[in-house]
Amino acid sequence: MPTPRRTLTLLAAVTLVLAPATAEAHAAEVPDAMASLGDSITRGFNACGFFVDCTSRSWATGSSSTVNSHYLRFRAVNPSVVAHNDARSGAKVADLAGQADRAVSQGVDHVTILIGANDACTSSETGMTTVADFESRFRAAMQRLTTGLPEASVFVSSIPDVKRLWEVGRNSSSARAAWSAFSICQSMLAAPRSTDPADADRRERVRQRVSDYNAVLARVCAEQARCRYDGGAVFSYPFALSHLSTWDYFHPNSSGQRLLAEITYTAAFDL
Fold this sequence. Notes:
CATH topology: Rossmann fold
Number of strands: 7
Strand order of the largest sheet: 4-3-5-6-7
Structural class: alpha/beta
Number of helices: 11
CATH architecture: 3-Layer(aba) Sandwich
């Protein structure tokens, strides 16, 4: 397939329009076509309605100005940029290779990846994806991208800290009710008010699993010259309960999606 076109411009043009306080004269390549891979977070799930995908509110490809996605920031410089949301709600790292294949078929020149929350947020701790399997699956997906789109840039976001969910929601009766009713992330969120050492230890093990996944993302991304990892920016950000959808107290609402867009875009371009 032909090498995708790329539009060379100044990133300063983007930041001057969208974030004046952080405008700097950085040179960067604004894509002509982007694809975003991942799970329900990238699909904007629950960001605009009850248990539905809201791709217009996606941090990566959303068209809503309330979120100010990567796509809108790119479009401010390149009005013809095309965005594909290839993520799937419920996806795990095992699904990433198939999404990578779609991105290759679309001939994009920029890819974003946010995957792994569902590998840790399972019905029980024993159901979590092993670190070895996570690495094998992620590496396979990256190989498909780098082989099929050798000139494309890839941005990889760290997985959010799922223990933070427990920290900000454990004292909310609404959050606890949603977690229980919908069996959300029970590996971490089961017995949310328990102070039993066994529950505390379980939460720490799940958090460590997410940290281990993020280490894999960083290591595999570093092996590719055109891949950029966020340095743990998303994982380390202390998001608040107000950033979560009140439908499930798990997925980002519009405010949370906007925050995610800002954190990841800043990390991607070192603003």
